[in-house]
Amino acid sequence: MSSQTVAYIVGVILVFVGILVSIGLHxxxxxxxxxxxxxxxxxxxVGFGPTVWxxxxxxxxxxxxxxxxxxxxxxxxxxxxxxxVKPVKGTGWAARVIEDTRLSSxxxxxxxxxxxxxxxxxxxxxxxxxxxxxMMNLLIAILIFTGISVVHGVPTATPTVGAVVDCVQAVDATxxxxxxxxxxxxxxxxxxxxxxxxSADGHPIxxxxxxxxxxREHAGVPMxxxxxxxxxxxxxxxxxxxxxxxxxxxxxxxxxxxxxxxATERVGFLGMAPAVxxxxxxxxxxxxxxxxxxxxxxxxxxxxPQYVYHAGRTALGLEQRDQQGLMSVVGVGRIxxxxxxxxxxxxxxxxxISDLLGLVAALNLALFVFNMIPLLPLDGGHIASALWQAVxxxxxxxRALPRPAPVDVARMMPIAYGVFALLLGMGLLLMYVDVVxxxxx
Length: 441
Fold this sequence. Notes:
By secondary structure, this protein is an alpha+beta fold.
């Protein structure tokens, strides 16, 4: 077995261990507040299917299941008994599902559990218990991104010239420069690789973002650049070329026009690439990075049907895989293996560990956003039912009515089964396309 193969396997194992730890911590986020609020927690399990190992401590059984695809904590009394809610009318499939769910919940109750059932909690305690899992995933992401940025550092574009582009090409052009392509402004001005840009039009330049913004705003307008070239100060004049460049959305995807062409905007183009170095950041950087990625992840989840549609077309061979689309655990494993085994000059061991940890952090963000969707069986569905209880309670107080009955979560179970079936189908579809047409790094 080659060293690359070993590295690939190790990378996959490390990320999946990270996922299992994240799942375990997610369930702890539910379990701890539930116990603090007096709810009996009968089981804490990581995985699904047959039990591989378990041990009972106190009133809770802790264990590992054979299929590492999730986890759960069993909170006693999540479904209110029939005596507490309105009777369910009908005898069809949905009515049977509701009744079976209610009976199963009642059968879990033991003597002494009458006042320890989850449904008896006030609405805000329910929110804390159900939000505890996703919030744990968000905290994990913040800690990982903070650790990476403080200990290892992050790739950072600097105001040092890393490369000079020879020409200006059209937005959809590919390949090398042609004789008809105009010379780039950077090449015409005499910028050289290794030049450190100190100021632009008299404004000190400390970072690439500031310089990039000025370049984009100076389309066709001359700029005076002061650079440090091997210890000597050199003054150059460059006129960024007006160029049409692609517009990107919050997820980094190219924005398309209605006719299928790439949406563009006219900006200044200098024709240089910044040198990128790994730089350590302050403590606040990790949190800022987390919430930046959180926004992009939220946008991705809100477009979930669109991504699944394109994945389906990929599965049927009707289009190529969207390289910025969704992945299953199979795709995540392939990316982890590639990160650990890829042979690229300058890609250090620290870079590999940083990227593997970053992948785990990104997965935790996805778990946070996905679980907050207000649909059962996801945590967000339980949070939504608790908030509805708050609305009912408030409306009863305003009208001086008795405290209303608890929200009957059992009535939502037919929908929960439908959502579960959709999620299962989506997972299987993504696994298939991750095998036949995987996303590449």
